[in-house]
Amino acid sequence: MKRLFIHIGSFLSMILINTLANTLPINGQTTAEIANKLNVPITPASYAFMIWSVIYLLIGIWILREIPKSRRDSPEYTKMSFLFITSCLLNSCWIIVWHYELFFFSVFVIICLWINLFLLYNKSRKITNHFLAYAHISLYLGWITIAAIVNISYYLKYISWHQFALSDNLWTILLLLIAMIIGIGFRIIHHDWLFPLVIVWAFIAIGIKNGDNHIPIAFTTYVLAFILVSITFGLKRKIIKK
Q1: What tens digit of pLDDT does each residue of 140-189 get?
Q2: CA end-to-end span of the chain, whole Å?
C-alpha cells in the first residue's frame, strides 16, 4: 500500500509542476514562450505537445492497475518502482531548470530522463508483454527522444554554436535522420510499433511548423515519416505472418 501511495504522489506532483508551469506560470513565462524565443527548426508545431495528455493518461491507467491488492506486489510494480519515481522527479526537475533558463542543466536533466526511461522500458519488456504495462513508457520514451534532440538543438543555438558550419536545413535534416534511425532500431530490436509512431507524429508536426519558412525540412520530414510508417507496419505484417 505504501508503494502505491508513493507512486500516486509522485505522479500527481509531476502533473502539478507541469500544470503550474503554464498556469502560474513558473518564473513568469510558459514553457512554450521560452521555446519560441529562439528559432530552432526541429521544434514541432505546438499541437504535437498534446501527446503529453495521452502519456499521462496511460501512466494513470498503469497506476490504477496497481490498486487491486493482488497486483501490488507484482514485479511490474516492485521492480519498476524506483525508476518510475525517479522519472517523475526528473520530469519535474526539467520544468524548473527550463523555466529559469538554465539550458545547460536542462540538457543534462533530459538526457538523464531519457536514460531513466530507457532502463524502465527495458525492465518492463523483460517483466511482462502486457500492452498496458509498457505502452506509457514506449510513448514517453519516444517523445523524450524527440524532446532531447530539440532541447540539445535549442541549447546549441543559445550558445551560438555553428553546427559544424552546416546550414539550419542540413543540420536539422541530419538530426531527423538520427531520430528515424532510432525509431527503426526500436521497431526491429524490440518489435515495438508505438515508439516509431511517436517519431512519425513529431515529424509531421515539424513539417507543418516549417512548411512556410524551411520547405526542404518540411519535405524531408514527410518523406521520413512515410518511410518510418512503411517500415513499422511492413515489419508488423511480417511478424504476424511468421
Answers
A1: 999 999 999 999 999 999 999 988 888 899 999 999 999 999 999 999 99
A2: 42
Domain extent, residue 62, equals: 2-241
The CB density around residue 111, as the number of other CB atoms within 10 Å, is: 15
Q: What is the pLDDT of residues 97-127, one digit of tens each?
A: 999 999 999 999 999 999 999 999 999 999 8
Contact criterion met (CB below 8 Å) for 100 and 84? no
Torsion of CA 115, 118, 124, 130, to 10 degrees: 150
Residue 223 burial (CB < 10 Å; 0-12/13-18/19+)? middle
Grid look-up 550558445 returns 159
Compute the distance between CA of residue 103 and CA of residue 106 in angstroms, rounded to an integer. 5
Domain count, the chain: 1
Cα–Cα nearest to 187, from 133, 127, 227, 130: 227
229/157 Cα distance (integer angstroms): 30
Q: DSSP 3-state assignment of 182?
A: helix
Copy the grid coordinates of residue 69.
Answer: 491488492
pTM listed for this prediction: 0.94
What Cα–Cα distance (Å) separates residue 200 from each residue in 18, 171, 226? 24, 19, 8
In the numeric block, which cell numbers belong to residue 218?
518540411
**If we measure between CA atoms, which residue out of 91, 188, 194, 185 comes closest to residue 138?**
194
